[in-house]
């Protein structure tokens, strides 16, 4: 198992996945506990383990999509270089792609030599349509596996301690200790002070956990219902707008980061991939699981207005993203469609069934 993970994840990737997995596990333990104050240790174990498994699956899928997007970006670069009208245009395109990290390390002459060397390689390369490969899937499995293994000690107290309050404290202690050890390991890898890096990452993890608990627990457990009643928000508006915005915060942050770095393909891919995963995987799984663990079976029966909105949203996303280019007015158009949906759900709620 260790060799399998090492084969598909480099040291930085392993450290990053373990670190973020522990931070998410800390957030899950706090949020689940605050949302289920009367639950026993076994119920908390099931809830937190399910959250960790869900995060592992999501992170593994995102790894596969990221690899696919990177391969697509490289294929597009090869096509643009091969179809460039002149050699100068081809070299300029290569420079736009490579010069960022090379600016501080090379001279203009050295970068020119690198550009010409890359041009020679690209001319003999074949532009293939990007596809998901076996190594991508195995890499996603490795990501999910390392997250499950890293967060497994965090849920052990819920199995061996009957008092849920004590189990939560032990779980937090184990997670923070592991977070410190991962930080110290990171410090050794980068040649910094292990104690300083470990303490710093532990503090950062505690701050992120407090933010996660505050958002998830206060908003979704206590505040949403009262705020919805006070502001006149309908359940449809809360579900389609409020919960969707907060629940997709992680994906939006990654998409915004990619867009700021002029990685439009990655940004759009994250946004569309997240929506497709919710619609085609998470929602059906929740419906099936509701028959076993829910108080009542869920359904996917939507009122006609919701079906029309999802159809319009799908068509809008398809038309905007198919061109492969973006402009400010395209963003304004998408925001306008979203605003129309929000106003419609707020002012014209669906008729009670």
Please tell me about this protein's structure.
The chain is built from 14 helices and no strands. 82% of the residues lie in helices and 0% in strands. Helix 2 (11-35) packs across helix 9 (194-231), helix 9 (194-231) packs antiparallel against helix 10 and helix 13 (304-322) runs antiparallel to helix 14 (328-347). It is globular and about 70 Å long. It folds into two domains: 1-229, no CATH class; 232-353, no CATH class. The protein is mainly α.
Work out the helix count: 14
Shape: globular
Question: Compute the gyration radius: what is it?
Answer: 24 Å
Number of domains: 2
Oligomer: single chain
Question: How would you summarize the topology of this molecule?
Answer:
Blueprint: H1 2-8, H2 11-35, H3 41-82, H4 87-102, H5 108-123, H6 134-155, H7 157-160, H8 164-190, H9 194-231, H10 235-247, H11 249-260, H12 264-293, H13 304-322, H14 328-347
Helix pairs in contact: 2-3, 2-6, 2-8, 2-9, 3-4, 3-6, 3-12, 4-5, 6-8, 8-9, 9-10, 11-12, 13-14
């Amino acid at each position: 198992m260790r060799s399998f993970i090492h084969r598909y994840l480099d040291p930085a990737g392993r450290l990053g996945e373990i670190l973020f997995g522990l931070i998410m596990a800390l957030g899950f333990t706090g949020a689940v506990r605050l949302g289920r104050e009367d639950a026993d240790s076994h119920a908390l174990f099931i809830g937190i383990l399910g959250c960790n498994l869900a995060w592992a699956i999501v992170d593994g899928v995102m790894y596969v999509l990221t690899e696919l997007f990177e391969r697509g970006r490289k294929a597009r670069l090869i096509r643009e270089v091969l179809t460039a009208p002149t050699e100068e245009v081809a070299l300029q395109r290569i420079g736009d792609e490579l010069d960022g990290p090379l600016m501080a390390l090379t001279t203009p002459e050295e970068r020119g030599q690198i550009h010409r060397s890359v041009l020679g390689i690209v001319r003999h390369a074949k532009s293939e349509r990007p596809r998901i490969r076996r190594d991508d899937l195995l890499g996603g499995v490795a990501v999910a596996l390392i997250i499950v293994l890293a967060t497994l000690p965090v849920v052990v107290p819920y199995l061996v301690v009957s008092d849920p309050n004590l189990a939560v404290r032990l779980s937090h202690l184990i997670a923070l200790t592991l977070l410190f050890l991962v930080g110290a390991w990171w410090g050794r890898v980068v040649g910094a002070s292990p104690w300083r890096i470990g303490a710093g990452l532990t503090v950062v993890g505690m701050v992120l956990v407090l933010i996660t608990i505050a958002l998830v627990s206060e908003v979704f457990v206590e505040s949403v219902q009262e705020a919805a009643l006070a502001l006149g928000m309908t359940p449809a508006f809360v579900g389609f707008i409020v919960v969707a915005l907060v629940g997709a915060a992680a994906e939006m942050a990654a998409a915004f980061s990619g867009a700021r770095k002029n990685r439009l393909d990655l940004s759009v891919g994250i946004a569309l991939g997240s929506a497709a995963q919710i619609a085609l995987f998470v929602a059906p799984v929740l419906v099936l699981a509701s028959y076993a663990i829910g108080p009542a079976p869920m359904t996917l029966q939507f009122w006609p207005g919701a079906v029309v909105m999802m159809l319009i949203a799908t068509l809008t996303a398809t038309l905007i993203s198919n061109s492969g280019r973006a402009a400010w007015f395209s963003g304004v158009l998408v925001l306008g469609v979203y605003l129309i949906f929000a106003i419609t759900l707020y002012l014209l709620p669906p008729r009670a069934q």
